[in-house]
Amino acid sequence: MSILILTACIAFLIIQIAWLKINPFIAFIITALLAGLFLGLPIETLSQTVQKGLGEMLGSITLIIVFGTCIGKLTVSSGAANVIAKTVMGWTGKKYVRLGLMITGFIVGIPLFYSVGFVLLVPLIFSVAHQFKLSKVYLGIPMLASLSVAHGFLPPHPSPMALSSILNADIGLVLVYGIIIAIPTIFIAGLLFSNLLKNIKTESDHEILNVEEVVNEGKKPSFSLSLFSALFPVFALTLTSILPMISKNETLVNICKTVGEPSMIMLISLLICTYTLGIRMNRSITSVMDDYAVAIKDVALIVLIVGGAGGLKEVMIVSGVNETIVATLTQINIHPYLLAWMMAAIIRVCVGSATAAGLMTASVLLPLLQTTGLDPNLLVLSVGAGSLMCSHVNDPSFWMFKEYFNISLKDTFKSWTVMESLVSVLGIIFVFILNSIIH
After folding, report:
1. Which letter, b or e, does each residue of 23-48 get, where b requires 16 or more Cβ atoms within 10 Å of its Cβ?
2. Which of 91, 268, 386, 387 qualifies as a cystine partner to 341, CB 3.0-4.6 A?
3. What is the DSSP string of 122-142?
4. φ, ψ for residue 363 (rounded to 5)?
5. What three-state secondary structure class fits 348?
C-alpha cells in the first residue's frame, strides 16, 4: 500500500508540473506534505519533517551551486568564454570545425548552466555556419551534445550536485567518472551522429542573431588564464579526490579532505576568478559583485526546487516507505543501474525537466545503496543519463533549439530529440563498461 501511495504522489507531482504548470518547488512541497499525510506521519510533525529535509538538502548544495553560478557569470561577462571559443576554433580550422565546436561546448559547459551556455554559443555556431556555408544543425549538434552531457553528468551543475548529495556520492569521483563517460558519449552522439544531419536546412533566412553578449569592453583575459579560471574547480576536485587514493601520507590526506570539500573548493575558485577575471582585468569590485548578484538571482529558483526534493526525501525516510521500496526492488531481476536509468528516463519523458527527473528518481533509489553495495558515484551517473532521455515538447530546451535554429518540428525531433536520446542510452552503456573496469 505504501508503494502505491508513493507512486500516486509521484504521478500527482508530474501532473502538477507538466499539466497544471505549477512551479516545481511548490509542487514538491505539496507532494511531500500529501505523501507524509497518506503514509501516516503524525500531522503535528509533518511540517517539521519537510522543513528538516529541505534544510539538510539546501545546507549541502546551496553554496556549491551559488558559487558555481557566479563563476559561470563572470566567465561570460569577462569575455573568458568568448576567448576560449575563438582560440579552440582557431586551432581546429575548417576541416575539424565540428570537433572544435564540440571541445568548446564541453569546456564552456562545465562552469556554465545549460541555458546560459546555449545562448552564449549559438551565435558562434551561426557565425561559423555562415563563414563555411554549412548547415547550422550539422555544426550545432556536437556543441550542444557537449553542453547537455555536462549539464546531466558533471558537477558543479545542479542535478549532479544534488544527486551526489542525496546518494552520498563523492563529488570528485562523480566528476572524474563523468568526464570518462562524457568523452565517448559526446563523440558518438555529437560528432558522429551530426554526419546524418547535413541536409537539415532552416525554413527561411530568418535567424535569431540578436543575442547580446554582455562582455567586459576593457582588457580581455588570455586563453590560458581563461581556461585556468573556468576549469579550476574541475582541476581542484579531481586532484583532491585522486591524491588520497595514491598517497598514504596522513597530513596530505587530511589537507585534501579539508580543502577538497566541494563548498571550500568552489569558494576558493570564486576568489581566484574574482581576481583573475575581474580585478586583474581592470574591473571594479562593485562591477564584479553586480554580476554575482544577477547570477544568484537567476539560480534562486533552481536551489529551491532542489530543496523541495529534499523535503520529499525526508518524508520517505521518516515514514519507512524507503524500506518497503528496497524489499520490492531487490526482488526485481534487473540491475539497479539500469533500473535507476529507466525510472529517470520515464519521469523525464513525463515532466520534461532533467533536474526534476533526477531528483525524483534519486529519492526513491536511496535505500538500495544500503542493501546492494552499489557504487553511489556510478548510480549518480546512471540517474543523470536517464534524466536526459528523449527531450520533446514539454522540455523548454526543445523549443529553444527549434526556434533558434528555425527548423521544422519534424527536423527538431530528428536532430535534437534523437541526439538527447543517444546521449542517454550511451551514458548508461558506458556506466556499465566503466563499472566492469573499476569493480
Report:
1. ebbebbbbbbbbbbebbebeeeebee
2. 386
3. HHHHHHHHHHHT--HHHHHHH
4. -60, -35
5. helix
Helix 97-109 vs helix 136-153: angle between axes, to the nearest 10 degrees?
A: 30
Looking at mean pLDDT, say which of 267-281, 322-336, 351-365 comes out highest. 267-281
Question: Cα–Cα distance between 28 and 24 in angstroms, integer?
Answer: 6
| Cβ atoms 193, 141 nearer than 8 A | yes
Compute the distance between CA of residue 5 and CA of residue 34 in angstroms, rounded to an integer.
10
Contact between 140 and 44 (Cβ < 8 Å): no
**All three cell numbers of 269:** 575558485
Q: What is the C-alpha to C-alpha distance for residues 189 and 146, in angstroms, rounded to an integer?
A: 9
Q: How far apart are CA 261 and CA 5, in angstroms?
A: 37
Is residue 402 within 8 Å of 381, Cβ to Cβ? no
Reduce the DSSP state of residue 220 to 3 states and report it.
coil
CA 278 to chain centre: 26
**Range with the poorest average pLDDT among 112-126, 149-163, 232-246, 283-297:** 112-126
CA 66, chain centre distance (Å): 14
pLDDT at 332: 74
User: How would residue 2 be classed by pLDDT, with cut points 50, 70 and 90?
Assistant: confident
Write out the three cell numbers for 121.
554559443
Positive or negative, the Cα torsion across 380, 384, 385, 387?
positive
Q: What is the mean pLDDT of the chain?
A: 85
352, three cell numbers:
520534461
Q: Cα dist. 224→81, 227, 271, 277, 333 in Å?
A: 12, 5, 18, 12, 50
28 contacts 309 by C-beta, under 8 angstroms = yes
Predicted confidence (pLDDT) at residue 349 exceeds the cutoff of 70: yes
- When comparing pLDDT for 318 and 248, which is higher? 318
User: pLDDT (tens digit, 9 = 90+) per residue, 38-56?
Assistant: 989 999 999 999 999 999 8
pLDDT in tens, 80-104: 888 888 888 788 887 898 999 999 8
Q: Can you give the length of the chain in residues?
A: 439
Q: At 415, list the grid cell.
A: 536532430
**CB contact set of 271 (below 8 Å; sequence gap of 6+):** none
Closest CA to 303 of 59, 120, 16, 14: 59
**CB–CB of 313/166 below 8 Å?**
yes
